[in-house]
Design a protein that fits this description.
By secondary structure, the chain is α+β, with helices and mostly antiparallel strands. It is 35% helix and 25% strand. It starts with a strand and ends in a 17-residue tail after the last helix.
Length: 173
Amino acid sequence: MSFVMCKQEKVESMEVSLRAMNSDSFSEYLKMVIPSYASDNVKAGWWDQSEALERSKMAYTRLLPDGLNSEGNYLFNIIENTTSNNVGYIWVKIETHIHTKSAFIYDIGIYEGYRREGYAKSALSCIEIVAADLGATSLGLHVFNHNSSAKSLYSSVGYRVVSHNMQKDIGVK
C-alpha cells in the first residue's frame, strides 16, 4: 500500500492522498517526532525532562523495531493533491485479535503553515479507508489532555473517550 487517494466530502475541494513514507522521509519524521513526543510526555507529567528524550527514542525503537518494515505498521506522508505539497504525516498500526482486527493511530501531525486548513480531517478520513481495507473494524488513538485542539478535532469527526488516565504527583520525601 504505497499510495491512497482520498477525498473529504464535507470540505469542498479538499483532497489529500496518503503516500507511504520512504527511508528518507521516515528518517526526517523521526528527527521531528522523537523530541516532540518527549516534550508532550513532560507536559503531561509522565516523564522528567532529564530522561524524556532517551525514553522517547526507546519508545519509537520498541514500537517500530524494524523501522518502516515493522509488521502491521503503516506510515504515510499526507499529500495535498492540488499542489503535491507534503502537509503532514500519519502512522497507523493494525492489530489482530482473536476474531477481529483493530487499528490504532500512533501519530498524526500537520506541518506548521498548513494547520487549520482541513488537512487533518481529510487525513483521518483517508486513514479510515486504509484501516477498513486492511480489515480493521475500529480505529483508536491517544491524545494528550493538554492538547485541546486535537481533542476538539477528534470529537468533531466521531471519536469518543473510552478511558481516562489519571495521575497525582505525591512527591518524594
